[in-house]
Amino acid sequence: MDTRVTPNPVDGPEASSGISRWPDTEQLQRRFDELVKQPMRPVRADAMQKVQRYFDERCKTSKALSERAKTVIPGGVQHNLAFNHPFPLAFSQAEGAHLSDVDGNRYIDFLQAGGPTLLGSNYEPVRRKVHELIDECGPVTGLLHEYEVKLAELVCRHMPGVEMLRLLGSGTEAVMGAVRLARTFTGRKWIIKVGGAYHGWSDQLVYGMRLPKTGRMEATGIPRGATGHTQECLPNDLDELRRKLSWNRLRGGTAAVLVEPLGPESGTRPVHRDYNRQVRQLCDEFGALLVFDEVVTGFRTGLAGAQGYFGVKPDITVLGKCLTGGYPMAGAIGGRKDIMMSLVGGIGTTTKRAFVGGTLSANPLSCVAGYHAILEMERTGAAAKAGRAGDRLCQGLEEIIRRRGLPYVSYNMGSIVHLQTSGVLLLDTSSLWKLLKVKDEAKRRKHMMEEMGAAYTAHGLITLAGSRIYTSLADTDEVIDDALNRFDDVFALV
Ligand SMILES: Cc1ncc(COP(=O)(O)O)c(C=O)c1O
């Protein structure tokens, strides 16, 4: 199997898309290896005390609230992405590129709700349309609304692989539905994912999460049978994918290959530039459906998603996050018409179908928000602008890292910026023996990542778990330059 890397196109059509340049994955891999080979470079212990003082002295209201939360909410937080070291901060205001916590501290918002708010937080033109809709019919009727159709038409117009759309409640639900749909359409049972990828928390996909080849490591409370037909391949390993597809052919066949098109965990381990095209070819050869999980990449890497960027058409596309511009209930399955017809809805349906649905699915509130958010993304060129902000941030971070002689690695795919300081997600877990070898180290590196995140927060920067950054349309050059000065201050503490 040909796994060569195609050369990085420097300019060309990518210049106007959400991603201006694909990272040199081979060079990155060498840097990842160097990062995890050397001792950690955390914030110094004396500087961490200052960080702790920030939380204790400037975040008293958050602290009290987090104590209250702990008594009624397991772990004190409801969101997996909520930053909770040393304790979670509570936020009361969000506008554009900034957030304010309940103690009145202001931050640059690089979490952007985990990705959905490509237009920036609390974007006024969309908010206005939502208000109008709520005044007219409230958030939900359970019946057809014109905005459902308008949103579906808009998505079908932009996404090359989407001819029909079924709206659901979340990315997790949509992935679950996509797998059921693929099994219904193909009559096969196996699904193959890429190790380390996140596809939500359904029983069948809490498998090989975060770190490749970790299989059922996180599958607490999930019976073996539920993951019994899930398999994982190493990132970028097309030979392994071919072997699994061949083997499955002898025992029930592969219904679907699921990929996060940038690479697992939103490109934490980036794929080779040609990877998706080669996966497409393998799927065609073995009659498996190709599922692109575009929950993060949909609209963020451009209106045509990662499928537009890579020029690869999946059979099924899973959407979420940006689909409703940050408003609730973001999830959808899109795809080829012949496949999608196995998702026919409605009470009177008699055709054989994969059953999916939900009381609040496709509610008018989510649909009006999604429709106008995508129109605004179109009008403003949000993906490209946020992408250029990501480029500027990443270049600046790399300059600081070089100047300070740190082993850290920053790289980006447009508005998705990775900042690896502890390298916890880059440890080699490709075999059981290697996994056991790095288990304790992973704990230490994870703690370092938490401390880095806390240090960023104390310097007015909210990130995703201390290692990922989402930029938005609201990130002007001034915002990015302000952020870079703050990152420089944090790196001075190492
Ligand atoms: C690639 C990917 N797929 C699926 C999901 C699950 O989406 P949700 O959190 O809306 O259930 C996520 C969430 O972060 C994701 O990143």
Descriptive notes:
- Its cofactor is pyridoxal 5'-phosphate.
- Belongs to the class-III pyridoxal-phosphate-dependent aminotransferase family.
- Its EC number is 5.4.3.8.
- Residues 1-21 are annotated as: Disordered.
- InterPro entries: Aminotrans_3, Aminotrans_3_PPA_site, PyrdxlP-dep_Trfase, PyrdxlP-dep_Trfase_major, PyrdxlP-dep_Trfase_small.
- With 494 residues, this protein is α/β, with parallel strands linked by helices.
- It folds into two domains: 12-114 and 381-491, Alpha-Beta Complex (Aspartate Aminotransferase, domain 1), CATH 3.90.1150.10; 124-379, Aspartate Aminotransferase, domain 2 (3-Layer(aba) Sandwich).
- 41% of the residues lie in helices and 13% in strands.
- The protein contains 15 helices and 14 strands.
- A seven-stranded mixed β-sheet has the order 4-10-9-8-7-5-6, sandwiched between helices. Strands 1-2-3-13 form a four-stranded mixed β-sheet.
- Helix 4 (124-137) runs antiparallel to helix 12 and helix 5 runs parallel beside helix 12 (364-380).
- It is globular, with a radius of gyration of 22 Å.
- The two termini are 44 Å apart.
- Residues 1-15 have low confidence and may be disordered.
Put the structure in a nutshell.
The protein is of the alpha/beta class and 494 residues long.
Question: What's the CATH architecture name of the largest domain?
Answer: 3-Layer(aba) Sandwich
Give the amount of beta strand, in percent: 5-15%
Along the chain, the helix and strand elements come as HHHEEEHHEHEEHEHHEHEEHHHEEHEEH
Ligand types: pyridoxal-5'-phosphate
Number of separate structural domains: 2
> How many β strands by DSSP?
14
What is the count of DSSP helices, taking H or I runs of 4+ residues?
Answer: 15
The CATH fourth-level homologous superfamily of the largest domain: Type I PLP-dependent aspartate aminotransferase-like (Major domain)
Q: What profile does the largest beta sheet have? A: 7 strands, mixed
Helix content: 40-55%
Q: What's the level 1 CATH class of the largest domain?
A: Alpha Beta
- In angstroms, what separates the terminal alpha carbons? 44 Å
For the biggest β-sheet, the strand order reads: 4-10-9-8-7-5-6
Structural class: alpha/beta
Low-confidence stretches: 1-15
Shape: globular
The radius of gyration is 22 Å
Mean pLDDT: 94
Task: Classify the fold: give the CATH topology of the largest domain.
Answer: Aspartate Aminotransferase, domain 2
